[in-house]
Design brief:
By secondary structure, the chain is of the alpha/beta class. It is 35% helix and 15% strand. The longest helix has 17 residues. The radius of gyration is 19 Å and the shape is elongated. The protein starts with a helix and ends in a 22-residue tail after the last helix. The chain binds adenosine-5-diphosphoribose. The site of adenosine-5-diphosphoribose has 27 residues, from α2 and α11.
């Protein structure tokens, strides 16, 4: 499945950037957004659940929906694709993983250099000052989300909703890395949501090799140098095995040391 030229390029890469989307967590049982029928947006209206206006209209509905998703994420486990990406991080000198996913599964798989472009469903913040809140009391009124212990405003998930800006530092770091990388892997994203979907274009314009990992064609396919038309839980471990034959991979969750024979990270 893995062209020799691609395996050689990864093994020799100095700076690698990976952009991931919901498809990378699909094999962990987390639904994607736009896959027909199974995707969240095929079953729920994003305008009713994932915008500031929706939260203003019905904060309880939005809070409960994210609480349900958070429970599913906490019950899920990283899959072989997540683990293989953590292995790549340990084997290339320069690495950044920019994810659109809010599930925290990359970190649980051992990835360290991770930028969360769309925030995290595992964090909660005050809807007035935006500060993350670690502990909160259960809501007083049953038809309300919990309130900020500091100011009393409603709490909300620390994710980026439609019509909202991405965290400035996160997108700036991802854009800089995209413009400086020599290889970018784009896995499990429909590449339809900007500004994250612009990152592969920045990398390509700067001369990087572009690799798409996705069982389906996307808006990005025409731009890719290599396409692995396969699920990421299959394709990325195969890519690691081809790039570094004979070396065990998948140090598994928590193994954060480099395994290029050099000192610890
Ligand atoms: N492995 C790799 N890719 C997969 C897999 C898999 N096992 N299963 C599905 N895919 C692909 C689909 O073919 C699709 O192209 O993953 C992609 C998922 O696309 P979306 O559902 O659009 O998710 P994503 O690109 O992450 O969405 C971007 O949109 O809704 C917002 O904020 C949300 O971060 C999200 C953003």
């Amino acid at each position: 499945m893995i062209p020799a030229a691609l395996a050689a390029a990864l093994a020799g890469a100095r700076r690698v950037v990976v952009l991931t989307g919901a498809g990378v967590s699909a094999e962990s049982g987390i639904p994607t957004f736009r896959d027909a029928l199974t995707g969240l947006w095929a079953r729920f209206d994003p305008l009713e659940l994932a915008t500031p206006a929706a939260f203003a209209r019905n904060p309880k509905l939005v809070w409960d929906w994210y609480a349900e998703r958070r429970a599913a994420v906490l019950a899920a486990m990283p899959n072989a694709g997540h683990v293989a990406l953590a292995t790549i991080e340990r084997r290339v000198p320069g690495f950044l993983l920019a994810t659109q996913n809010v599930d925290g599964l990359h970190a649980r798989a051992g990835s360290r250099a991770v930028v969360e472009l769309h925030g995290s469903i595992l964090r909660v913040r005050c809807s007035r000052d935006g500060e993350v809140v670690a502990r909160w009391d259960d809501p007083i009124a049953a038809d309300e989300p919990p309130r900020c212990p500091r100011c009393g405003a409603f709490l909300r998930p620390d994710v980026v909703w439609f019509d909202e800006m991405l965290p400035a530092e996160a997108i700036a770091r991802a854009e800089d890395a995209a413009r400086a990388c020599d290889l970018m892997i784009v896995a499990g994203t429909s590449a339809e949501v900007y500004p994250a979907a612009a990152l592969p274009h920045h990398a390509k314009a700067a001369g990087a090799m572009l690799v798409e990992v996705n069982p389906h064609a996307t808006a990005l396919t025409p731009l890719a140098d290599f396409v692995l038309r396969e699920r990421s839980g299959v394709a990325i471990p195969a890519l690691v095995a081809a790039a570094w034959p004979g070396r065990p991979h998948g140090g598994g969750a928590g193994s954060s040391g480099r395994d290029d024979g050099g000192g610890a990270k």
